[in-house]
Amino acid sequence: MIKLLLGAFLCYFSVAFSQYCTLNVGPTSTVDSNVELVQISGASGNINYTGCPGIVGVQDLTALSVSLNAGGNYLLNVKFGTCGGNYAGVGEVWIDFDQNDNFDPYESIGTWTGTPPVATSSFNFVVPATAQNGITRMRIMQREAGALPLNPCGTYSWGSVMDFGITIGNGIDCTGFVGDDQNDPILVNNMPYVDARDNSYCYSNNNYVYPSPDIYYKFDPNPLIHSVHASLCGSSFDTFMSVVDMNGNVIAFNDDATNCGSQSALTFETAGLGSVYIIVEGWGIEMGNYTLTLDADYVGLEENDLTRFRVFPNPTIGSISLNKAIGTARLYHVNGTFLGSYNTDHSLVLDLTPYQAGSYFLQSEDGSVTEKISLVK
Q: Are residues 347 and 202 in the same domain?
């Protein structure tokens, strides 16, 4: 089932992250609900802050900083309270572990609901082992009459927003990782193309479609290419894939492909297109290992004419689709060993996952059609 509203998708692609949201964020009044106390001891340093009187907007307290180690366990104490009257509200805390200048839902380390006066809330959290080394921020937000989850960039009447400094150590050194955004994409220089990665570390969220980390590929179509087949079939998580041009216009997108469950696959025509970005991400906050395979159809060359039999994706990590039925198809290993038959009149999707990585041939029963297949694991 498609889990995304197209209108929101189109809108989101026109926005890019650049820096922490600090303008027109937080309370517009200095009275009533307010964070009264923030305490944390780190691997080095500590923060011991007392709030009140209230501050309009985002209170920049990044000069108050603490160092945290990736994989370390820490205790944060926050007293969600008031600088005036007692009114019901909610609170939430985020730490920007992936340093994408955004407080993502998966970076929330604790929430609170109540009516002051209340006891201090204690949030015990573990810094992800994949947190990126360097200087980042912790944001604490309290909103009177609000509801969870909070929008870390939201504007409202009463409450408070405070940003503190955090320095991450013993984490991931992301130097040299390419593909995090459209300014430093992974270049696709040949077809067919295969690339395997893990987007759960060193990659951040830069396109607003889903809050999961995304990876950008840049592809410049050869004038002889008619269309491109892109597949994430076999990935370890629920994927989402999209194709946009250099102006952010959406060319194609797919959530769940019919032949690979919750993974994504799509085909887009390249006629008239210049360079495009192929963007890989997860549905929601999903992330993990994936393999992107790209294959192309060419025009003006008889051997690649669209009317002829073909399979895609090729190379594949386990499943292939046929562009047309050829009756009974026989699968052979490159060494000539016969492995089995498939009735392509019944299904155009063939499961090759039982076989090991290597080269294979798919041949029609009468021998008139033969296609070489590369299986990668």
A: yes
- Among residues 362, 309, 310, the alpha carbon closest in space to that of 332 is found at 362
More confidently predicted of 301 and 269: 269
- Whole-angstrom Cα distance, residue 71 to residue 126? 6
The string of pLDDT tens digits covering residues 45-59 is 999 999 999 999 999
Whole-angstrom Cα distance, residue 376 to residue 355?
Answer: 10
Output the six-digit token pair for 146: 């609000």
Number of structural domains, the chain? 2
Cα atoms found within 13 Å of the Cα of residue 165, Cβ hemisphere only: 13
367 phi and psi, to 5 degrees?
A: 80, 5
CA distance 375 to 320: 10
Measured in degrees and rounded to the nearest 5, phi and psi for residue 11 equal -70, -45
User: What gap in Å lies between CA 29 and CA 32, rounded to an integer?
Assistant: 8
Please give the Cα distance from 341 to 330 (Å, whole number): 4
